[in-house]
Amino acid sequence: MMKALRFHGKEDIRLEDVEVPKCGRGQVKVKPAYVGICGSDLHEYMGGPNIMPTTPHPITNEKVPLTLGHEFSGTIEEVGEDVDDIQLGERVTVQPIIYDGTCGACRDGFINCCDSNGFVGLSGWGGGLSEHVVIPRKAVYILPKQVSLEVGALVEPIAVAWHAVNISPFKEGDSVLVLGGGPIGLAVIQSLKVKKAKDIIVSEVSPRRTEFAKQFGATHVLDPTKDDIVARVREICDGSGAHVAFDAAGVQSGLDQAILAIRARGTLVNIAVWKKEATFHPNRLVFREKKYMGVATYVEGDFQDVLDAIAAGNLRPEAMITSKIKMDEVEEKGFKALIHEKDNHVKILVGVNPSDD
């Protein structure tokens, strides 16, 4: 038996004894080291199940209760049959998307848009908040020697931001507006800095997150409760507005401001997962030929790109880690800390087997 932190329902997570998973053909067994607590985990805890299945998932055939943890690193402790390209003891980060590989989106290479998609740690196949997890070999990426297991647990959220910047029309020298200075917003800032944005303008209320935004490369930080975001962005961007805006906040007021703050033929990229429906007048796009696009997680290649950028020293995300806790402290020092003290935290890591680095 092994310990696993499992979600049973709203405000109901339990550290339980469960069976140790067996490693099969094409799979690897990973001993998780560090696990990041994501906003998705928090939303499930506060009001779920939302995206966690209450009927059998079409790929995993599992439903709540399920083991949590989809942002994680660890070490390889067993390899299954037909796996010959990774060694025991290798330090890895995990790309948690579950996809069928057969739907139209998957055939086009868009595994993040799979008709039946899910995530390790949200949809079944175990999760990082357990002593062992078995996943497909293709889901793990070897950490370069310069990348610690702690930073390895940050690769997943950074890959979300990296992918958003990659598929947006952003190009070197552009001016950009970022809505929200939470973990994804901060990862967007870092990605834009690596890709040589001219102006990185951040809209954020929290004083602590404002400081984080500056630390990670924001050139201007505005407070939407005090500043006229549209006017200030246009002023900074030579009167024209931002080339691209990234919404990592998911609030109506931010959406309204961003649509007006981007220039003619500019693009607003939505990364946020919204809690409720949003509205805007299509004419605000039509008359200035603006675009609104959605992005979802990441595709194959994004994880390796992020790892390469960290290994080269171009991305330095260590300061995103604001606390490290133990698996039996997740509810009190993890979820509740993020609910009641969210302005003081960016990423809380859970040390499951933290001594393997």
Q: How do you describe this structure in short?
A:
With 357 residues, the protein is α/β, with parallel strands linked by helices.
Characterization of this structure:
The chain is α/β, with parallel strands linked by helices. The chain contains eleven helices and 18 strands. The chain has helices at 39-47, 104-107, 149-152, 155-167, 183-194, 207-216, 229-236, 252-261, 283-286, 302-311, 330-340; strands at residues 2-9, 12-18, 27-36, 66-67, 71-79, 91-94, 97-98, 118-119, 133-136, 140-142, 175-179, 199-203, 220-222, 242-247, 262-270, 291-294, 321-326, 347-351. Helix 4 (155-167) packs across helix 5, helix 4 (155-167) packs across helix 10 and helix 7 runs parallel beside helix 8 (252-261). The longest helix has 13 residues, at 155-167. The two termini are 24 Å apart.
**Classification by helices and strands:** alpha/beta
The portion of residues forming beta strands comes to: 25-35%
Distance between the termini: 24 Å
- Number-wise, the strands total 18
What is the H-and-E element order? EEEHEEEEHEEEHHEHEHEHEHEHEHEHE
Give the low-confidence spans. none
Rg from Cα? 20 Å
Percent helix, as a range, is: 25-40%
Q: What general outline do the C-alpha atoms trace?
A: globular
Biggest beta-sheet profile: 7 strands, mixed
Mean pLDDT: 96
Number of discrete helical segments = 11
